Amino acid sequence: MSALARYFISLKKTVAGYDRSETDLTRELAREGMFIHYTDDVKLIPVNFKDRNDTLIVFTPAVPSDHTELVFFKTNGFQIKKRAEVLGIISRSSDVLAIAGTHGKTTTSTMVSHLLKSSDIDCNAFLGGIAINYNNNLLLSDKSRFVVVEADEYDRSFLQLNPKAAIITSMDADHLDIYGTYDEYQKAFKQFASQISPDGFLVVKNGVEIGKLESAIKVYSYSLNEKADFYASNIQIKDGVYHYDVVTPKGVYKDIELGFPGLLNVENSIAAIAMVTLLNMDEASIRKAMKSFRGVKRRFEYHINQKNLVFIDDYGHHPEELRFTIESVKKMFPGKKVTGIFQPHLYSRTSDLVNEFAQSLSLLDELILLEIYPAREKPIPGVTSNMVIQKVSINQKHLCLKKDLVKTIENMPLPEVLITMGAGDIDTFVEPIKQVLLKKLQNTAGAHL
User: How far apart are the C-alpha atoms of 404 and 418, rounded to whole Å?
Assistant: First the structure.
């Protein structure tokens, strides 16, 4: 939504909006000239936005149907479109490069964008996170025909797109509150793939079964280190940085250095490299861009990285994402105790995947589990974080209320490696946690003098 808002600002439109809470991002949007409020109240809608002949309402399905401002706009005959519809309209005259998947979309789409912008090909991009290299989620070009978009499967939003080329990173069960069954979820991905231009191509992760497509597009496979059209070999960690070779149909790119941590991101980089290689980006530009890639805010983002203390924040909210993140951290910091703070996202997802969440979180050495972040949902009777923690197999596990989190960190021993994970509002605790940890680290150092 914020990338779309920035796009309209770039067109010199007046933009206003509602969000349920103030964040660093909304404050930044306000500084860029947008009018944002945080209480659902029709009276707070700026007067010049109450003219239905001169106002477009764009909403995300995360906004509940009984939201009084949305009801006001519907009742009074305003032109109303979903975020995905607007993105589809904007991108219709461009060559869309769409990145889809249950997880990995944001990082992979940001990697593709950075690769292209580091070459003569260039691109526009609507990203689902803030690219650290650009401190933005909207990238514009006045010369490129390509637009990179994150193709979101929630509410079948990605079916608004007709890509020139696409990546599918994963297809694990999710959003079953919308799809009902995993079979329907898979059908939506197949439909998305079928909408790729006949002269385009699809890059899909090994093991993701799309089935026979209606169009005869070229399909390429990729994997982390299993044989595929594109895959990594000779993966090594040197001074905390991944180095690896990338095997492609055009040859082997030796000793690629990824300037962004996490084994999952090595896999994401293979997908991104596959797409730009198929767009004829040269190896030298790929090598340089991968080394300079700094990642996405809240995707394996370091906030403290010292010998005796590491603090990482990650947006992961699906069991597979958690598993990849935790396993990557354990490989990068062998022998260190890894403590995780996780905030489940959505009652429906927690209920559908409770066993999978428990399995992934059991990879930690210690778990602090917060209450479920509801987002767009009403509570489901009986669905709580306690369902998950009862199934977690490690001994060091604790339930914690959000209001008690900072105090809990203050009272616990200084962790060796701490990860905060979740897609709700856990990011608002990152800075307070960081300050507490730095103070504890200073006190610990002082005690050893």
Answer: 17
- At residue 335's C-alpha, the angle toward residues 332 and 336, to 5°, is 75
Q: Residue 180 has what pLDDT?
A: 73
Is the domain of 44 the same as that of 80? yes
Clarify whether residues 155 and 73 are in a common domain. Answer: no
pTM: 0.77
- Contact yes or no for 434/311 (Cβ under 8 A): yes
Residues 57-67: tens digit of each pLDDT: 999 877 888 99
Domain co-membership, 62 together with 157: no
Residue type, 357: F
pLDDT on residue 449: 43
CA distance 291 to 242: 10
Out of 261, 292, 323, pick the residue that ends a domain.
Answer: 292
Question: What letter does residue 262 receive in the DSSP assignment?
Answer: -
Task: Give the range of the structural domain holding residue 54, as residue numbers without chain letter.
Answer: 2-85
Instruction: Provide the CATH number for the domain around residue 315.
Output: 3.90.190.20
Q: Which of 292, 315, 348 is the last residue of a domain?
A: 292
Under the banding of pLDDT at 50, 70 and 90, the label for residue 377 is confident
DSSP letter assigned to residue 342: E
Nearest to 326 by CA among 357, 350, 295, 293: 357
pLDDT at 171 over 90: no
